[in-house]
Amino acid sequence: MAGNIDYSKVKDTNFYRNIGIIAHVDAGKTTTTERILFFTGRKHKTGEVHEGQAEMDFMDQERERGITIQSAATTCFWELNGEFYRINIIDTPGHVDFTAEVERSLRVLDGAVVVFDGKMGVEPQSGKVFHQAEKYRVPRLCYINKLDNIGADFYKSFASITEHLTDRATPISLPVGIEGDFKGIIDLVFKKAFIHKDEEGKAISEEEIPAEYAAKAEEYRNKLIEMVADVDDDIATKYLDGIEITPQELVEGVRKAVLALKLFPVMAGSSLRNKGVQEMLDSIVRYLPSPHDKSFTIEDKETNTEIVYKGEVPGTDPKTDKITTKKLLDSEPFCGLVFKLMVDHHVGNLAFFRVYSGKLQSGSYVYNSTTGNKERVGRIILMHANHREEVKEVKAGDIAAIVGFKDTKTGQTICDESSPIILESIDFPEPVVSFAIEPKTKSDQDKLGEALGKLVSEDPTFKARTDAETGQVIIAGMGELHLDIKVDILKREYGIEVTVGKPQVAYRETITGEGEHRELLKKQTGGAGQYADIAFYLKPRARGEGYRFVDNIKGGAIPREYIPAIDKGIQDSLVSGPLGGYPVVDVEAQITDGSYHDVDSNTDTFRTCAFYGFKNAMKVCKPTLLEPIMKVSINVPDEHVGAVTGYLSSKRGIIKNLLQRGKTKEISAEAPLGELFGYISDLRNLTSGTAAANMEPSHYAEVPRNVLEKIVGESKKA
Ligand code: GDP
């Protein structure tokens, strides 16, 4: 059936669902996605993840690691009550090292299914993503998976959702049987049981709710109605008057509540056993938003408030810098957001984008409002997990990929030039870890630069540069695993093998005290001399406030035209601080006095003088190093908790919280990145492989004295 989709069956974009499946690693995202593709008729045979056939996992190393990294968009179709729906699945990564990828996909999807492991309930990552989704106003369905597993407990998992994530969650389906005896699900809205007669999901019989579940079903249906009643007055009145609420009324009420982010329906299932997946597809279509139902928020910089928009997407007008909007309609001028770049070996560079308004045709030109450049839209392609399909036109609500873009990057807006808009851009965290890489063979040297260029353009949290002094190639990213995966891609996709150096922490330098310094540059060499004289006053700024330049020169002690050169000279100096050559942050530099020479002074002499003067000024202001502190979250069986907390303390970690989750504890801690290299294998050894850990950058903090001396000593040696 590859490539032959009958579009005419899908009436219009009201029948579109752009969704993401989000989950903690191992909760069953890949299996669930793969089953969705199977049941929506895009696949003929289900492939087990462990056999390496899962459709969404494009790359070999993802399969090996069992994690999904690429944000691919996959299109499929579902029929409900004679209507055809188009479902675009935006793949979201399950690992915390890829926060940027999660945010990027949340930005463009309209609704999501959050998958939970029916034994583990809420895990650290599902919590984090759930809250991230709030920021992007993404309505969510919760899916408690793996109910066939020994130890699975639907009600406990549901309780962990209400305890840790939201008290606006309530079941819309209940499991019939559990563990090896898991037979099917009860739909609380329709008051029916769907009992699965086989493991392929082919034979499902619609039955009355089994007698032993009647009371429970009644109880949970009433809970659902009560929650819907909070947003739907008609249902509230009927419920209070004791009038029966029909399934159709409840469908509409649930949909309304879900779209308003006031209800997170919880569903039961086992993707591996094909139970609950088709029911989930029905719920996706019934309860999740179409592209026209989506609401957005934008921060109003003038009033510092968040504004919610419905039926239109907000952005900034590049000409006026004021908020502007586009209605989510085909009839509006075109605008869309590029959310993912990928290099496809067969077609070339793919730019995945979401259309918010208007239409776009292949072969046309489009305006990149972020860069101000025009780009040619070579071809437009719909991606299925295992084949591509060319289309002539896309319109508001569509998600597709463009072939032919030359210099458009992730997060940039493409639009109609006559009606420009910059959609909210995505903030990406700065890298905290780096290491040097070196190709094993000389012939790979040239290939390396090109390959890194592509990787950098695909992933805004990944950086690569050549060190000017040593000539080494340095790659930087969000964590060791993030960089390991890039090294893997170099090998597998580009055939470049590299040796890697020791991981380096992205330290920063700053000052902790105020101070004054006067720098004099005076050289008399033969003819023309050099002269500049600047008095500095430095003081520390709060974390994250960055650099600030203040001109306090009075009475023309230094002529106006040299002031910008001084600012530039200081900025040159900020690149490499006096302690260990790390970038300098959070300093205010005032210039308070100085002098000049009519002949020997110029912008260059002031720039040079400022460069050295700032470094020397820092030395009298109690300079210090800042180090990245990571937020660490570790799930570990009770018997290993002592070993892990002891380990964290030995790594200058601070335990923030200990939460009991069934038979495991979740340890939340903060620890300096510099102490955490190799922590994954340390944890494995300490806990016989039972710990599950996450970490992500949290903030920068001052390095303790004794550690400072060690780091500075090492960087001097290097
Ligand atoms: P992901 O990391 O979230 O993509 O999870 P996967 O889909 O790769 O699943 C992780 C593991 O759980 C695999 O071994 C799956 O076979 C298994 N799994 C997924 N869904 C189910 C389920 O419904 N029941 C059981 N018993 N195992 C499942």
Number of separate domains: 5
Task: Please report the number of helical segments.
Answer: 16
Order of strands, widest sheet: 20-19-25-16-17-24-21-22
Q: Whole-number radius of gyration? A: 29 Å
Q: Which CATH class of the largest domain applies here?
A: Alpha Beta
Structural class: alpha+beta
Report the helical percentage.
25-40%
The tally of strands reads 40
Principal-axes shape call: globular
Gap between N and C termini, in Å? 60 Å
CATH topology (fold) name of the largest domain: Rossmann fold
| CATH structural architecture of the largest domain | 3-Layer(aba) Sandwich
Task: Describe the protein's topology.
Elements: E1 16-23, H1 29-39, H2 60-65, E2 73-80, E3 83-91, H3 99-108, E4 111-117, H4 124-135, E5 140-145, H5 154-164, E6 169-171, E7 173-176, E8 184-187, E9 192-196, E10 204-207, H6 214-229, H7 233-240, H8 247-259, E11 264-268, H9 277-287, E12 295-300, E13 305-310, E14 312-316, E15 323-327, E16 335-344, E17 348-357, E18 359-361, E19 365-368, E20 373-376, E21 379-383, E22 388-391, E23 393-395, E24 399-403, E25 413-415, E26 422-423, E27 433-439, H10 444-458, E28 463-466, E29 473-477, H11 480-494, E30 498-500, E31 504-505, E32 508-511, E33 515-524, E34 529-540, E35 548-551, H12 563-574, E36 587-595, H13 603-619, E37 623-637, H14 641-650, E38 654-661, E39 664-672, H15 679-686, E40 692-702, H16 705-717
Helix pairs in contact: 6-7, 6-8, 12-13
The structure holds guanosine-5'-diphosphate.
